[in-house]
Amino acid sequence: GQNIDQPTEMTATEGAIVQINCTYQTSGFNGLFWYQQHAGEAPTFLSYNVLDGLEEKGRFSSFLSRSKGYSYLLLKELQMKDSASYLCAAMDSNYQLIWGAGTKLIIKP
Amino acid sequence: SQTIHQWPATLVQPVGSPLSLECTVEGTSNPNLYWYRQAAGRGLQLLFYSVGIGQISSEVPQNLSASRPQDRQFILSSKKLLLSDSGFYLCAWKGLRETDTQYFGPGTRLTVL
Q1: Is any Cβ of chain A less than 8 angstroms from the Cβ of B104?
Q2: What is the pLDDT along chain B (113 residues), one digit of tens a residue?
Q3: Rounded distance, CA B9 to CA A75, Å?
Q4: Which one, A46, B61, B75, B104, has least CB within 10 Å?
C-alpha cells in the first residue's frame, strides 16, 4: 500500500532550527511536496523535490533521498508566524498526491 | 496570475439536506481540478479529480458527486448530507504538466448537524 509518515507534533523555540521528517512508500515516485497550513486556512506550497539532495529557499530547505524514501523540511531562524502544520505529499506513478497527516509545529518564545 | 475561488466560506447544514459547493479558477486554461476533504487534525483525502469538462474521476465511494460543466468550474454536490460529511473542503488546481504543483482555494468549512 501507499503510506506517508511524519511526526504528529513538534515544538521549537523562536530563533532556533527545526527539522521535520517524512518517510514515504508509494507505487512509483514522481516527487515530494511540502506545504504549510495555518490553522483554519488552506495549504500553501513550499517546495518540490524530485532529485536527491537539498533545495534551499530562504529560511526553508527541503531534502530528498529517493533510495531511503525519506525527506525533511528544515526551518531556520524560526519565527512565531511559522507556527502551522506542515504537510508532506508524495506523487505516485499516476501523478496523484499521497498525503501525510501533517506535523503541527508549535513555536515558543 | 492564476486565482482560485471557493464559496461559501462556511456552511452549516442539517442532516439530509442537499449540498452544492462551487470552485472557479481564473487565469489558466484546461487545469486539472481536485476536490479534497480534510477532517479535523487529519490529512487531505482526495474525493474527485477532473482533467477536462465532463471528465470526473472518483477516488472514494460516498454520497458525494462532482461535476465540471465548464473548463474552469468544478462543483461538489450531495443529495442528502450525513453527519460524517462535516469537514474542510478544499478545491485545488494544477497546470498541464503532470508534475505541476497543486494550488488550493481558500476552502469551505462544512458542519452537518
Answers
A1: yes
A2: 889 999 999 999 999 999 999 999 999 989 999 999 998 878 899 999 999 999 999 888 678 999 999 999 999 999 999 999 999 999 999 998 888 999 999 999 999 99
A3: 31
A4: B61
> Are B104 and A100 in contact (CB < 8 Å)?
no
Measured from the Cβ of residue A46, the count of other Cβ atoms closer than 10 Å reads 17
Nearest residue of B to residue A6, measured between CA atoms: B43
The whole-angstrom distance between residue B90's C-alpha and the CA centroid of its chain comes to 5
Residue pair B64/B85 in contact (Cβ under 8 Å)? The answer is yes
A25's grid cell: 512508500
Distances (CA, A) of B93 to A25, A61, B39, B71, B83: 24, 24, 20, 11, 27
Greatest pairwise CA separation for chain B in angstroms: 41
C-alpha cell at A10: 513538534
